[in-house]
Amino acid sequence: MTDFLILRRIAGLGLTTAGLFALIMAARVGLWPAVTIFAVLAFSIAVALLVYDRLGGVAFAIASLLLGPFAGPVLLLAATGSAISPTKINNAPEVAELTKAERISSEIAEGRRPLTRASSVPALAHVFASGTLIDQQTALAAVARQYTPELHSVLERALASDIPAVRVQAAAILAHLRDSFSRRARALIADETGLSGTEHETEITTVSTSGFIDAATTAEIERRWRPTL
Hints:
mainly alpha
């Protein structure tokens, strides 16, 4: 099994090196040659990561565009922070128990707290308003694993986080979910889901209410499968 965390650390280190090299070139050679070199290196790193870790590759590409040569340190810090799991925090002698944010996201990730429960959404929104980097990354991972339409507003709140690494990861998750639901919508329209009965009806409802499908596509799905409604 591919260790995404190690890959992201390696990519973050490579992007950091590329940023330092670009800054040195900007000082000695000129701005535009440095920008060109950094863009080429960053693109190469993102593509290489994309082969093994699609979400990570998208995050690195977006971070490179938004943060430039400073993307590497931010992403490297994010990858290092991700290694600290709620279990490790809970077992550390200097910390007696998980924070509220970590308990919520841990329960979601383990399936013990349904995301459709109304209280979960404001609780997670609060995490992105005032939680630490680890709190917010843990919550993002939980939301990405068990996304429901009720959490679309939570991801949008994560985009407004005060922490750049969280904003980058939230943008990558939104892009991933948008691509995923678009593929599922196309499969429904083309009748290529392989589902039937209740499962097919559930897929129609899930895709239509996902928050990532435009009105025209939703209408096409309705015409295709619910022509009498």
